[in-house]
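seq as requested:
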Amino acid sequence: MSDAAPVSPLRQTIRDLALADEAMRVRDLVAVSALDAADRLAISEAAANLVTRLRDSTSPSLMEGFLAEYSLSTEEGVALMCLAEALLRVPDNATIDALIEDKIGSADWGRHINQSSSPLVNASTWALMLTGKVLSDDADTALIGSLRSVVKRLGEPVVRTAVAEAMKELGRNFVLGRSIEEALKRAAHLEGKGYTYSYDMLGEAARTDADAKRYHLAYSDAITAIAPHCKALSVRDNPGISVKLSALHPRYEEGQRDRVMNRLVPRASALALLAASAGMGFNIDAEEADRLDLSLDVIERLLSDPALNGWDGFGVVVQAYGPRAAPVIDWLYDLAARHDRKIMVRLVKGAYWDTEIKRAQVLGLAGYPVFTRKANTDISYIACARKLIGMSDRIYPQFATHNAHTVSAVLHMAGNDRDRFEFQRLHGMGEDLHQAIMDDSGTRCRIYAPVGAHQDLLAYLVRRLLENGANSSFVNQIVDTSITPDDVARDPMADFAAWGDCIANPNIVAPGELYGPTRKNALGWDLTDPSTLADIHRQRAAFRTIQWSAGEAGNGIGEPVAVTNPAFPTDIVGHVVMAGADAVPLAVSRAEAGFAAWSARTAKDRSDCLRRAADLYERHAAEFFALAAREAGKTLLDGVAEVREAVDFLRYYANEGEALGGQVAPRGIFACISPWNFPLAIFSGQIAAALAAGNAVIAKPAEQTPLIAARAVALLHEAGIPPETLQLLPGDGPTIGRPLLSDPRIAGICFTGSTETAKLIDRQMAGALAADAPLIAETGGLNAMIVDSSALPEQVVRDIVQSAFQSAGQRCSALRMLYLQDDVADGILEMLRGAMDALRLGDPWDLSTDVGP
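struct tokens:
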């Protein structure tokens, strides 16, 4: 990784806010919104009146009725989401029948009967209830029993067809057309009423270059088909298209920045030029937060193209649920001014909230890249809207929302000038709200319309269900008459004021606090964040050529042996003095004294040493990253995981040891024999467990990775564990292992490696050690993945590649055998080959390397 290029102050502000303090950020945004008490009261009253009017004079759409009745807070709502997400792609009847039975057979559909104002929803409920009872094994009446028997014998195709058609109807309500031509025909009706459209070609992120080319062609064909409908002089009055950058390259990620800029940008540029020639809008869709910084570089490259001079149709989508939204808008305005452009900005609430929360927790980040309360997102949206309204000389705002309070806030802040922005809604949702806005305010309204085959709807549909099926969403609440109009249209800033110091959601603890107050989560490093990467690069650089050492001269130990880099054998990583057989009894004698002193200490004292060691591991993380790459051949991604797992082991066993206290008696001296594929994590886990219980440890690391083990032991000693209590004996298995296993003073063995070696150890122990000496063995396995036709191929291929090829496949949990349902095998295998072609092999030191040695 080369030295980072200088960044502008605006871009640095965006980076600094990647994991901003939520409370501080929301306070800033409240100030940016510049709404006083009178403004806020007027907005809330207007929004409540709008809710009342909509409830009195309109009826919810089929989709709104479904989402209200079957929200994601209900078991039935989750079942429907899972069914809709999978059913349409299943080609075989047997899997369809099993899927239906699995998802709807056990749910309580009866409680939803006649609860909706929509006859279609109620009819569907009856059908689902009947199907569920028919498929249930718990049918307890003669009638239901008879029905079940008849349907099982004669009517499975009927049930299958009915449910499949219901799911297709769900799809039709979210997809404007199966092709762009069909979508354009269906759009004509509402275009005649003053609406415009932005077309979104369905499809998830490309997994292969062939996928990317196919998506690129689909976008090109769509732009060509839409072009004749762009008859107005202004792009504001013409239809447009939305493009996902992740569809244009299979490796749209920070680690592959060079490929993104060299291959993705030309593809996106060709589409932008085609859209410009047609006079239509061209929006870059927003995606996950870990792609934001990279997307800004792509956007800057595209917008700086002189060929786009004079075109006002380039657009960017900004997600208000991120603390970076407002400074991104400032950056976009500055970019437009620098290149003398007018651009469009579509402001949305955000589409990946659940994913962002979970990712931050898994990675152990310092905070969240999204707000943890919905009201905070609403405040952010209002503040961003205030900015955009004041930037109309360079930016045409597009406010995408289904929320009456948000709409009222925008109209209030815009005043009488309703021509300098537009509202947007999703196809199939928010219809009555936006019709009322157009009728009352004369504002433009654009419909974001997915286009594609129904089987391509799935991932998009799940995102929409997650956004709008939650019981906190406006779409859900407006049809729930148990919630008053004032409550539906409540002011988010009033919520903010009522929270006091508890502005972040207290039910979503910070990633570092996932395990409660007594155990810190392991520190994480976000390898998609340029600032984090720059810090790692700077710190690792000190260890690029350094040489480490392991082992001690004397005490029966032999001559130093060079340890080489498996990626570059000419790179001498360091030297190890391998122990001879006569070193073992000396080490065991020392360990006896070490055990006596260590076991006499309190459990808390021992655990505190392990916790200090965990902190030291984190402090020396860059050195471990370097060692993992140069000695063990691990990529940076694997190096981060290695350190975090080791830290987790230390803290976990520290807590367990302290909790058990005097309940478990230490056994004596443990021999810990660890593998080379996890030279820090498993090595540290074995040692930590034994030490936490009060035992002394003789650690024999893998022959290939003694240097990283030596650094770990040095830090454990620094943390307060006596040298005689924890000893490192580097050497080969026959020389060190046999004498250890034959010494009756050894009280137990901890081993990770092959099953064959574990059996050998077991036999050797039986002839030499005490009968109750335990062998704690973690051995290899053969792991299989079984894929049926209900699985989304893109997710399947992603997980196959990750499991089979991360860590170069050198982990006992790596995927070895893949079983595919025949109906989908050809397509998945083709995608898998393409995804493998997109992997990079090379020096694990480089961020762009996927598979090292």
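DSSP finds 32 helices and 18 strands in the chain.
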